Model the fold of this input.
Amino acid sequence: MIGLFDALARPVLRMLDPEDAHRLAIRALKFPPFVKLVADDTRLAVRAFGLNFPNPVGLAAGFDKHAEVPDALLKLGFGFVEVGTVTPVPQIGNPRPRVFRLNRDQGVINRLGFNSEGADVALRRLAARASAGGIVGVNIGANKDSADRIADYVRSIETFAPVVSYFSVNISSPNTPGLRELQHAGVLEDLLARVVDARARMSRAAGTTPVLIKIAPDLTLNELDDIVGAARRHRVDGMIIGNTTVMRPQGLRDQTIAREAGGLSGRPLFALATRMLAETYVRVEGAFPLIGVGGIDSGDAALAKIRAGACLIQLYTALVFHGVRLVATIKSELSNVLHRHERAHIDELVGADAAAITAEKWPV
Ligand SMILES: Cc1cc2nc3c(=O)[nH]c(=O)nc-3n(C[C@H](O)[C@H](O)[C@H](O)COP(=O)(O)O)c2cc1C
Done:
């Protein structure tokens, strides 16, 4: 059924402006086709951040920005869904057009700039489904015109703690001027201290909601040292590596579109994001788990992320090019790998290649 839905919808969606196509996909998910849920292979189940994930394949932030369809997305087979980025106050983001497909490179450039219906709307939707089960995290960001951006994150922790499975603290979107400066050492210390403190204050009412930070793939290794150091000191629960890149890797074929400003995602991001994941893994030394994101479009790519250090993965852009059946394909390919290599569980492979990857030539 999912395959049929995909086959019919994708050619139509690909003819539309990417943002219109996305809107249509969200609308369609409000009336999802009846799908009989197939139980996941128990060897793919992951326990991380105190949560039990039925499988490691998650939907990355940015697809369901306003928390409209998390349960339909879980029904499509994702092991977890990250809604957002949500900003405290509604904002419209940058002028359109602001999403561009690089068809030949299987990439996307976006400069949406945190278009968000705001925290009140997202809270209402998340509260209405809070007892539905399934792992739904919220990615939180700051308003463009905020006078105190750290206060925005604190406010979102207070708002959403009772209704979400985890927080992804987004300090890595390239499309809100100055946002990524929150990754710098001094400011980050302050941000993490206040966020972790807000989480502790909420824990009596909401339990201890895991806090993850989502970083950019464009950091220097010195910056990464500082971030991992701060994350360990403040005992965050995990890191997500990473967001879109402002780099334009060599060899892109859609050269004209590649000149659009914004963050690049999809296949051209894979090598850089995987390298940064491995670099993070060797620095974290097992202190907390990592989520690997960026250019995953096959079972092999998912496996490579896991071997680079991810215990969970997320994807978005590949859905544009491969449709939602990709989720089932990745899960079945991961199961096949375990069978072929006589491994009892996917977690045996986490980080197996991390050290070797950090010794490779830097991807360009
Ligand atoms: C159109 C679009 C919108 C996105 N919006 C967000 C967002 O709001 N917050 C965020 O943290 N990441 C956002 N992302 C980044 C993704 O979550 C992900 O980190 C990145 O695209 C790399 O994964 P992918 O190559 O599988 O797409 C967005 C990506 C795309 C393509």
Observations:
- The pocket of flavin mononucleotide is lined by residues 60-62, 65, 84-85, 99, 108, 110, 112, 139, 170, 173, 214, 243-244, 265-266, 269, 293-296, 315-318 (CB under 6 Å).
- The first strand starts at residue 46 and ends at 48.
- The longest helix spans residues 185-206.
